[in-house]
TrEMBL record:
Gene this chain is encoded by: LOC101764451
Protein name (record): Cytochrome P450
InterPro entries (UniProt xref): Cyt_P450 (IPR001128), Cyt_P450_CS (IPR017972), Cyt_P450_E_grp-I (IPR002401), Cyt_P450_sf (IPR036396), Plant_metabolite_P450s (IPR051103)
Residue numbers binding heme: C454
Gene3D superfamilies named among the record's database cross-references: Cytochrome P450
Record organism: Setaria italica (Foxtail millet)
Amino acid sequence: MDAPQHLLLGALLFLLPAALLLVCARGKRLRLPPGPPSLPLLGSVVWLTNSPAEIEPLLRRLFDRHGPVVALRVGARLSVFVADRRLAHAALVERSAALADRPRLASVRLLGENDNTITRASYGPVWRLLRRNLVAETLQPSRVRLFAPARAWVRRVLVDKLEEPGPDAAPPRVVETFQYAMFCLLVLMCFGERLDEPAVRAIAAAQRESLIYLSRNMTVFAFIPAVTKHLFRARLDKARALRRRIKELYLPLINARREYRKRGGEPKKETTFEHSYVDTLLDIKLHEDGDRPLTNDEIILLCSEFLNAGTDTTSTGLQWIMAELVKNPKIQEKLYDEIKAATNDDKEEVSEEDVHKMPYLKAVILEGLRKHPPGHFVLPHKAAEDMEIGGYLIPKGTTVNFMVAEMGRDEREWKNPMEFSPERFLPGGDGEGVDVTGTKGIRMMPFGAGRRICAGLGMAMLHLEYFVANMVREFEWEEVPGEEVDFAEKNEFTTVMMKPLRPRLVPRRTQKSMSTH
């Protein structure tokens, strides 16, 4: 064998292993998650027979067919949905930075708004500034304690409203009372002013109408926005009108707070609180934009976000939990016994300090959030880079969402998941030591997980524990013949009871003790 042949043989022996490695690598190349076929412009063909506003039943069928990771195309955008808790933890917690971004909504651009809110901002300095401000200046425990008198006032409002007889003495639709009470509290925290009932109801109506309209009617703009913005112009006009109504209600309150601060906090009315969320927003400077202050429109959007996040989810959670207590009187009585043991009968309320001494109360709240999370999805995430979830390729820019309800009801993880059993969160139960932040592991994630976890987690748990404890202390909640509890679900902004709860409320406390209030 001459020299050229030796060289050729040596080259082949060197290149063959490299070639084999390349073939193997190509064979193992990650593929996109499975899902239905797609058409140009439309996206997945399932949109021909399914509405994006009612996506959950569709996804359940796809998970049954394809496994815990599925893909849908909405127009040109690839969206991936994950139903497995371990995959969620690997993606949201172990690789949190890769999914800390948000996709930009076409409807936001079409409405002429920017993304300078905590829920919508891209992962970066503006988001960090806005979130840090909310957490440190309003949701920090010492700040939350400042609003204890406000919560006590709202508790009285709630009890008084629940005691009011309905039309023809019909059982009340308690969710409407819950919504009003939560708006009373969050409006006060937001604007620093205890408003009268007509003002609160005007804000609540404007917020709720806008929220439900946007969640139901704006998904169409994800499909070819250059075309749909003309076809559905009336929807954009309606959305802008709803935004203008909110601005008309909020701007005088914001300006009143500006004036209050200019006067150094004086004179102070009995209804005025010394701290509010708006105060913190007026102090913000956007360093990335020349140290400019927030505009009025940006402050209004942040106030709307604050009210939406703290009212609709909490009132929805309260309705589901109280419905379970109506349907399960033995659980309700066990909770009442714990409340009586921890609270002095002479006290007007179950205090915030009292609820910290009630493990069964906390178990009831956790079980309610597990079985009935107000949001069945987290807010969507966006992949900041190519990544892998469950052995599939998630390309950079993909929208990724996680199935909150599916994880909390997974029969592989929970014993009898559709049974309401607070005992599962007590020592020895299958939910003992569960971490709702998802840091150690995800078994349920009603507040999301990772870097975009809900900033108001602590306040939400406090409000649920405080108001549930006080409602059970004041009333025995009974099922009414003809108004039996029905756990069928309906999707609004949150997942609510299709048939609202209408219980009979029997006062537990004697007239003598109640007259001392």
